[in-house]
Write a structure and sequence with these properties.
- This protein is an alpha+beta fold.
- The chain is about 35% helix and about 20% strand.
- It has helices spanning about 25-30, 45-55, 55-60, 80-105, 175-180, 190-200, 205, 210-225, 225-230, 280-290, and strands spanning about 5-10, 35, 65-70, 75, 115-120, 155-160, 165-170, 235-240, 245-250, 255-260, 265-270.
- The strands form two sheets. It has an eight-stranded mixed β-sheet with strand order 1-2-9-6-11-5-3-4, covered by helices on one side. Strands 8-7-10 form a three-stranded antiparallel β-sheet, with no helix packed on it.
- Helix 5 runs parallel beside helix 10 (about 280-290).
- Bound molecules: 2-oxoglutaric acid and fe (ii) ion.
- The site of 2-oxoglutaric acid has 8 residues, from strand 10.
- The site of fe (ii) ion has 5 residues, from loops.
Length: about 300
């Protein structure tokens, strides 16, 4: 079994007590998940109670709820106005604290990271009926169809806010190994070759999507479609206990959520020039495999 997956217990971390160096960032960039038995941020008990009280039948929750901290827009929610305002406030507070925490825990990123969406995941993950490419119980690496990163990385901070149930993940092999085994079959060469044509013939709109973005979107779908990979690939089960918290680069760690309910999550996009181990980033790993620049 791969040794690169190590769940580290940090206890309740006071960010100020952490050494101000890049060790944690390096571990994350290399594919490790950093685990906190208790959230490293303040999270009020009344907020937790409010979140876990939201049920599908009484508030029309059908999917993950997303919140955009930059604009205050809430998606995927259709409860009463008052409830909506309270939910927004809770997500905005969580987002602000998550940002503050990541800035001090991972100082290398503080100046350049981009605060992406916040999410609340109110549904039991086990047995969700979703179309194949949307299923999160299948191992995958993340790529967002609407937000190309051009080589930037996707860092996610989670809290399991459920009272009693763990959130259960499977995680797979390291990105370099995953790419070595599957990138060619997923069409890396073809997508790398398209780059120049697209540069030449399409104007600005398309250029937002680098070959890297197009490959990662394809790779996400390819991995979910690949039943040999899903059943035969190497995996490690991780149980995140109720009340625990974790950080992971989900564009590099193949992951699947098997069960659990009520999680909060904040996404950060870390640009290539803020990474402490850029040579380990998915874009560099893929470029080394295909011998061409991808962004
Ligand atoms: O909700 C989770 O625990 C992870 C789900 C996931 O893989 C995702 O949102 O990309
Ligand atoms: Fe994911």
């Amino acid at each position: 079994m791969a040794t690169w997956v190590e769940v580290e217990s940090e206890g309740a971390v006071s960010p100020a007590a952490e050494p101000r160096n890049d060790q944690r960032a390096r571990e994350l960039e290399q594919g490790r998940i950093i685990f906190f038995r208790r959230p490293p941020i303040e999270f009020p008990e009344q907020d937790r109670e409010f979140l876990v009280a939201q049920r599908r039948d009484d508030s029309a929750v059908h999917k993950n709820v997303s919140y955009r901290p930059a604009t205050g827009v809430l998606r995927g929610w259709s409860g009463p106005r008052e409830t909506e305002e309270r939910l927004k406030r809770i997500l905005a507070d969580f987002s602000g604290r998550a940002k503050q925490f990541v800035s001090s825990f991972l100082p290398a990123y503080a100046e350049r990271m981009h605060l992406d969406y916040t999410s609340f995941r109110p549904l039991e993950e086990e047995g969700r009926q979703l179309p194949l490419h949307k299923r999160n119980d299948l191992l995958h690496v993340d790529a967002f169809p609407s937000r190309p990163t051009r080589g930037g990385r996707i860092l996610r901070f989670f809290i399991n806010v459920h009272t009693t149930k763990p959130r259960v993940w499977n995680v797979g092999e390291s990105f370099p190994s995953l790419a070595k085994h599957y990138a060619a079959d997923a069409g890396l060469e073809h997508i790398a070759n398209q780059q120049q044509g697209i540069r030449r013939w399409f104007a600005i709109g398309r250029a937002r999507y680098s070959a890297y973005d197009r490959f990662m979107l394809r790779f996400h779908d390819y991995l979910k479609e690949n039943s040999a990979f899903q059943t035969g690939g190497e995996k490690t089960r991780l149980d995140f206990p109720p009340g625990s918290s974790w950080l992971a680069y989900t564009d590099g760690v193949p992951h699947a959520v098997l069960s659990g309910q009520h999680a909060l999550e904040q996404t950060f996009i870390i640009p290539p020039d803020a990474l402490v181990a850029p040579q380990e980033s998915p874009i560099r790993v893929l470029e080394a495999l295909c011998g061409r620049p991808l962004a």
